[in-house]
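Format is sequence with structure; example below:
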Amino acid sequence: AGMNGTAIENFVCVIFNVSFMNCTWHVGRNATEDTQYFLYWRPSRKEDVTECQNYIKDNCGRHTGCQFQNVTIENKNAYFLVNGSSSEKKIHVSDYIIVEKLTPPLNVTVNCTEASHTCSIWWQPPRTSHVKKSSCFKYEIVIENK
């Protein structure tokens, strides 16, 4: 329910450095100036819903994002809800997505042998908030001659 164009737009959550999550959105194109949005999330169906404690605000004081610390997502499904309030209109609610920005691979080691003109490269998978199988990762190596 809610009036079209009042829901937030361009909602994105990015997890970085394994445990920090930054969620941002744009105010709905038909939202009034007194519209205020509230973000709730839970990392799994089993856990309680948590409201954002650290909102990012625009020049009008409206919530346009949230920063979370110590985020843990045990499986691939996290649940988000953004609702809103306005004295003039009912605010529309929608479903949203999450992205994890990975750190580079860890402990990269290179061993080159000049006699055989070969190099061996080893590394460990990047740290992640929820991916447990290293086989889920694909890597690309770019070699530059200097």
